[in-house]
Amino acid sequence: MSKSEELDVIEEAKQQYIVVTLGGEHYGIDISFVDNIVRLSSITRVPKAPAHYKGVINLRGEVVPVMSIRMKMGLEDDQFTNSTRIIILKLEELGYLGIIVDSVNEVVSLGESDIDRNVSNMKETKGNFINGIGKDGDRLISIFDIDKVAGESTKDKEK
Question: How many CB atoms neighbour CB 33 within 10 A?
């Protein structure tokens, strides 16, 4: 095997993302944060919770808070359909958190070269929750910054 062939064999490490739909746009969630994907079940409202928290669900005996990521991003309220799912995230500090998405599409593998991290010029509220734009063929996928979505900032905790 020649040196050029050896270089071709070394591939960029790829990260897997679950592609979900919110309001017709594609978003990616790092699969390492995803514990489970469940159908929409009855959500028990919690009094005096922030508006973007829809309430809690019982998942295998565990009480899991459920958040409307649409409302947190300043989009219109959720429209519940047969495709609506709750993605259960496992977060180091917060434990479990459910986020409501319109639908779950697929899992894609993206390398760092497939993701444009220059998203600081986004002025919209939803730009605060995105840490990159992934390119999967002709499709663009906004990559969620799970720490910001969950309201958890690991940078603040390290100080």
Answer: 19
pLDDT in tens, 33-70: 999 999 988 899 999 988 889 999 999 899 999 999 99
Q: Which domains does the chain have, with CATH numbers?
A: 14-149 (2.40.50.180)
Q: What is the dihedral of CA 52, 87, 146, 15, to 10 degrees?
A: -160
> For residues 55 and 63, is the Cβ–Cβ distance under 8 A?
no
Residue-wise burial string across 125-149, b where 16 or more C-beta atoms lie within 10 A, e elsewhere: ebebbbbbbbebeeeebbbbebbeb
Rounded distance, CA 61 to CA 78, Å?
26
